[in-house]
Amino acid sequence: QDVDKNINIFTLDNGMTFIVVPRPEIPIFSGVIVFKVGGVDEHLGITGISHMIEHMMFKGTPVIGTMNWKKEKRIIDDIETIGRELASLFGQTSKEALNRKEELEKKLKDLQNEEKKLIIDREWDMIYSRAGEIEKNAWTSKSNTTYYISLPSNKLELWFLMESERFINPSFREFYQERDVVTEEYRTGQNHGDNKLYNAVLGVSFLQHPQRYPVIGFYGDIRTYTLKKVWEYFSIYYIPNNAVAAIVGDVDVGEVKSLAEKYFGRWKKGKQIPPVWSGELPQEGERKVTVWHWNNPTLVISYHMPSEPRYTPEGNEEAYVLSIISDILANGKTSRLYRNLVLDKKLATGVYADTGDPGPRGPGLFTIEAIPFQEVDLEMLEREIYSELEKLKSESVSADELKKVLTLIKASMVWKWKDNTWLAMSLALSQINTGNWNYDREKLNYYEKITPEDIKRIAKKYFTAENRIVGYLRQDKNRKPVKVNKDLLEKSRPHPQKGEK
What we know:
By secondary structure, the protein is an alpha+beta fold.
């Protein structure tokens, strides 16, 4: 109710949209900025570059983080010259190429050491820390890149200054060092069996659409990023008319408008964003993939489904029904799969269902994940899950079960919207992906219209063998972990791993 009463939306002349919800109870605010850029905007050769740019956005500006920008910029230019040549030599194994790479890497290291003398380490983070920041981070998904922080309300202008400067005037210093950090994150992901399985399932689910690319990118692409590639990509997608900011907390709307115009109003409007390629041929037969790993076994079963977000809930009926089905199957300890597989038959230690992957800007997947109990066979677990899905096709869900699921969904949203950061993220993501800030809540009204017959009809349509992708993570204890440079990772900020969700 306080959102309806206090919501304020305005758009600057350059196309950047701001959503403001005053909540004066506590003297803090949460600021969230979302860009409509992620894995689906990439192609082979630059996979993962959205995530790489997210890392670089914490490196400061020509003012923040340096003791002598002119001198540092000359070093950065020299580093880039070497970086481009090294990228061109990637994968070459001739004696001449290896000798040249060794020579260039030594020069690169020397220049990086020279640059380091001019850098004020982590000054961006320290400014926010001294200002009393409560939480600060960012994440990249297939569809969006999101930056968020909570600060005392008397630091509102600082937030506007810092956030506008990082996007209008980034320095991109220490680029190749940070590329090494991302490389180590990639290697860390190789040590998580569920992460490898997740990417393998996406790879066979989508044969053409960029939803198939891992958010962190492919190794060869990561190692051939150059500052030139990053600047080119950044200039296309990091523009004000491709961004939405949401500010929730103890703020004055008039002051927010004034500061938005002062700091973000100077940002030049960009060209129209190129559309995401949307082709993906229908699947015509079951697909299966097996990943061998030293981790414990896991089973993933996915079905193709329509993407959810649109401007209004109408037209998304099938996606909403599938969302309700996922909760019937695996939301809470009284859900069907949890009760059957975990509590009654002791076949699994955990079971989950989701309709949120891979992301809203492309075709979607209805996914069930199950962790087998001890030596339980994956195929046995698979058959039990199919049995539950068949029941949805032939037996009507009771009114009480449907009501329970709706209550859980509403309660979850109410709980999340009480939190300033959660609310700001919901509003900003809804606005940028659908053009409707209230989309997340409006779809709740549609959930109430779903009937047991709708569930049976949609289950019959989508839960078919020809629409199915199955992923097996099988245990092989003889396999060894990939070596990771933990010292290098610790120098980076805390960062989400699996799928960057």
